[in-house]
Amino acid sequence: MNVKQEHLMKIFTQILLSILMISNQIIFAGTTGRLAGRVVDDTGEPLPFVNVVIMGTTLGAATDIDGYYSIINVPPGTYEVKASAIGYNSVTYQDVKISIDLTTTIDFQLSEASVELGEEVVVIATKPLVKMDLTASTSIVGDDVISQLPVAEIQDVLKLQAGVVISGGNIHIRGGRSNQVAYQIDGVPVTDVYDGSSVINVNQNSVQELQVISGAFNAEYGQAQSGVVNLVTKD
Questions:
Q1: Contact 160, 150 (CB under 8 A)
Q2: How many Cα atoms are found within 13 Å in the side-chain-facing hemisphere of 112?
Q3: How far is it, in rounded angstroms, from Cα 32 to Cα 29?
Q4: What is the pLDDT along the chain (235 residues), one digit of tens a residue?
Q5: Angle at the Cα of 115 (from 111 to 116), degrees rounded to 5?
Q6: Which domains does the chain have, with CATH numbers?
Q7: CA-based torsion, 57, 62, 68, 73: positive or negative
Q8: Which pTM does this prediction carry?
C-alpha cells in the first residue's frame, strides 16, 4: 500500500467514525404506542375484514383472515375503540389506555344481528395486571393523573416516582449522578452535554405522558446510565 492509499484509508476511517458518532446522538426515543388484538364471533371463530377504529382520530385497521388487527403510531392517551362489521353488532371499548413504547391488547367478540336492528355494545376496558412487553422498570404518568396532583412543576411529579430523588435541583435516579440521566421530549434528546441536565423546561399542563425508566432500558437510550426521563407533549 503506497502513501496515497494510506492517506485515503485514513480519511475514509475518519469519515466512518464521524458518521457513527453522529448517528449515536440522533437516535430518537419512542413517542407513540400500539393497539392490537383479535376479533371473533360468538362461537370463537375469527372474523376477517372487521373495521377497528380509534374514535376521534383518523387511526384504524381492518382484521386479517385470522381476525387479528394492529394499529401503530398511536399517541399516548385514553381512547374509545370501536369494532364494526356488516351483519354484526358494533362493540365499543371505553377508557383504553395507550402508553409510550407499549402494546395495548383489546379483543372483541361480535354478535350476529340484522342490519336494521343492529345494536352497539359498550365495554369499559380494564388495565392488565402484567404488561407482557414491559421489560424495563418503568413508571408511566398520564395527563389525567398529572392534572390531579398538587404540584407546581414537572419536577414535583418526577420526585413522586420510585427511585427518583431531587437534591439541589438535580435529578438522581437509582442513586446515580445527575449527569447520568437522559432526557427526551417528543423523542428528541434534550440533555445538556455540559452538565447532563435538561435544557428545556416543560409546563406540566402541556405534558400528555411522563415516562421514567429506572432500569434495563433499551439500546435506543444509549446515552443513559442511571435512568431515562421521556416526555410526550400534547398536540
A1: no
A2: 4
A3: 9
A4: 565 566 566 666 666 655 554 444 444 557 899 999 999 999 999 999 999 999 999 999 999 999 999 999 999 999 999 999 988 999 999 999 999 888 999 999 999 876 555 567 888 777 776 777 777 788 889 988 888 888 888 888 888 888 888 888 788 888 888 888 888 888 888 887 777 777 667 888 889 999 998 877 777 676 777 888 889 998 7
A5: 120
A6: 33-124 (2.60.40.4130), 135-233 (2.170.130.10)
A7: negative
A8: 0.71
One-letter amino acid of 198? S
Cell numbers at 175, concatenated: 442513586
Phi, psi (rounded to 5 degrees) for 183: -115, 135
